[in-house]
Amino acid sequence: MKLFGTVQSFDTMQGQGEIKPEAGxxxxxxxxxxxxxxxxxPPTVGQRLSYETSTSGDRAQNLQTA
Length: 66
Hints:
Blueprint: E1 3-11, E2 16-21, E3 28-31, E4 48-53, E5 60-65
Antiparallel strand pairs: 1-2, 1-4, 2-3, 4-5
């Protein structure tokens, strides 16, 4: 199931960031490896993305621009 949220932070050196879900709740972490577009273009703060959560629900995966 696709979810939507906005990028709250992304550290280009560590390749990690956080998304604030539109539906509310805690921030969800993601790694650069979860990005499905050209990885040379990092996500920016405020950017709206669609994503899925890992089976444990604590990580975003399959990030796509929304």
